[in-house]
Specification:
By secondary structure, the protein is an all-alpha fold. It has one domain: Up-down Bundle (Amino acid/polyamine transporter I). The chain starts with 9 loop residues before the first helix and ends with a helix. About 45% of the residues are buried. It is found in: Cell membrane. Keywords: Cell membrane, Membrane, Transmembrane, Transmembrane helix, Transport. It is a multi-pass membrane protein.
């Protein structure tokens, strides 16, 4: 993939980085899981993981931004080529399996936008064909559309990233302003009372006690994930790659503040017990309940009639569906391109078969993009067009990627220790704090991985715990086999 760049203004660059990492869904789910008790854990996750990791990524992009390999190049220059390939393959594998899930989830916000409710779980049939098959077919068509759009080049990808990011920013502004109006109208009184004990104890019974809080700590860390993905695109942003590290830091501050502000502001319109005792609420739809309720509360404050209030609630609900649909598209475009770009362009020349690395006029390895698309379609067929056993297999594959997605953060932090032993022009972290930054990230990720594996054991979910552990081992073995095979091919040629 040649370096076809796109000149992005600094504000657009910050917007893309911030909205790629920030998740409106994670913010809403945090309030659903913990209410205000989520805030201290987000602060801890931000200070111990996200801020030091953002500093580390900033230094890598500031010194190695000219390389196309992104995460691969960072580890290759710091540790070894083998470590770089193994890490990037784990990273790529987990995102590819997640992509199949995202294509299936894409229909939920589209259903909310079109019908005001999620119809994707219904067992209806059309032309005597079950609805799940139509959803699967539609998902496969979407995969091919995304393949086509990626092959149009990074300019097209960046447009979708900007559109998704802009809409997410708009949705947050709507949510924040509406809640502030309610807060002012109620003379500062929150629907969910702010009390000292609620900052330390979740009203959700599943997230109380040591195990519950540790479970949410893992959730808090994952809410800050994705920075390495967007940072891998630094070589494609034209002259602004020099300001990319600074953009990462500005985005990191914005993300952290936005998460905390959003969790607090939900309390202006939503009383936790009144909304979330509804058994229909889940992690998949909590934000829709919150936005519908926000419209209902705002309609009452504005003096609208019952019909007018219902219309406003539906507008808020469907706006959320619209934004989440395009946000998913932007996210899909990013993670379908960035990890593949890193693993293709970071590796040495002739490492992969020539047909996989051959570029089109837009500088995209179109055959590799198509191959990835066909792999994702295969995973979708596995889920939709097979029996329950295949569905369980896919769920198990997803479990296997959960830890695999965290390991690259760990390796990047370890690589940074070695990287700082070299002489570099761009040093954002003072020498005495460089190892501290790496140590914080390493400790946090190791703790999160350990908790992820151990916590299911307390619930007697032994298979889940085993899959979390086996997943990285299997992907690592595949990566080592591929690495030695392609290296042997290079030696023979």
């Amino acid at each position: 993939m040649s370096k076809k760049t796109v000149e992005l203004s600094f504000p657009k660059l910050v917007l893309i980085i911030a909205t790629t990492v920030f998740s409106f869904t994670s913010m809403s789910n945090a309030f659903y899981l913990m209410s205000y008790a989520a805030m201290p854990w987000y602060i801890v996750a931000g200070l111990l993981f996200f801020v030091p990791y953002a500093l580390i990524v900033s230094e890598f992009t500031g010194n190695l931004g000219q390389y196309s390999g992104g995460l691969y190049s960072w580890i290759d220059h710091s540790l070894s080529q083998k470590a770089a390939f193994l890490t990037t393959f784990l990273w790529y594998s987990s995102y590819t399996i997640w992509l199949a899930s995202l294509f299936m989830k894409l229909w939920i916000p589209l259903s909310i936008l079109s019908f005001g409710q999620d119809l994707t779980t219904r067992t209806a049939s059309f032309w005597h064909i079950p609805q799940i098959y139509w959803l699967g077919l539609g998902s496969c068509i979407l995969v091919l559309i995304v393949v086509f759009l990626i092959n149009k080049g990074f300019f097209t990808i960046s447009r979708f990233m900007l559109l998704g990011g802009s809409l997410i920013a708009l949705l947050f502004v709507v949510m924040a302003v509406s809640n502030l109006i309610l807060l002012v109208n109620h003379h500062g009184q929150l629907s969910q009372p702010m009390q000292q004990h609620i900052l330390l104890n979740s009203p959700n019974r599943d997230y109380q006690g040591l195990l519950g809080n540790l479970g949410f700590f893992i959730f808090g860390i994952t809410a800050f994930g994705g920075l390495d993905t967007v940072a891998s695109l630094v070589d494609r942003v034209g002259h602004n790659k020099r300001r990319f590290p600074f953009a990462i830091l500005i985005a990191a501050i914005l993300i952290t503040v936005t998460y905390l502000a959003g969790i607090f502001l939900w309390g202006a319109s939503a009383n936790w017990a009144a909304i979330f005792t509804n058994q229909k609420v889940s992690l998949g739809n909590a934000m829709y309940f919150l936005m519908f309720n926000l419209g209902h509360q705002l309609g009452g404050v504005l003096g609208l009639s019952s019909a007018g209030t219902l219309i406003l609630s539906q507008i808020f609900l469907r706006l959320t569906g619209l934004v989440l649909f395009w946000a998913y598209i932007g996210l899909i475009m990013t993670i379908a391109y960035a990890p593949l770009k890193s693993i293709i362009t970071g590796t040495p020349k002739n490492f992969w078969p020539h047909f996989l690395t051959k570029e089109n006029k837009q500088g995209i390895a179109s055959h590799a993009v198509l191959g990835q698309g066909l792999l994702i379609i295969g995973l979708i067929w596995l889920v939709v067009f097979s029996n329950a056993h295949a569905v369980n297999l896919y769920n198990n594959l997803t479990l296997m990627t959960n830890v695999s997605r965290s390991i690259p953060y760990l390796i990047v932090a370890i690589a940074f220790i070695q990287f700082r032993k070299q002489q570099h022009d761009y040093q954002l972290i003072a020498p005495r704090y460089a190892n501290l930054a790496s140590g914080l990230v390493i400790t946090t990720i190791l703790s999160a991985i350990s908790f992820s594996i151990i916590l299911p054991l307390f619930k007697a979910h032994y298979l889940e715990s085993m899959l979390l552990l086996i997943g990285p081992m299997i992907f690592s073995i595949i990566a080592v086999i591929l690495y030695h095979h392609f290296n042997r091919q290079i030696e023979l040629s």
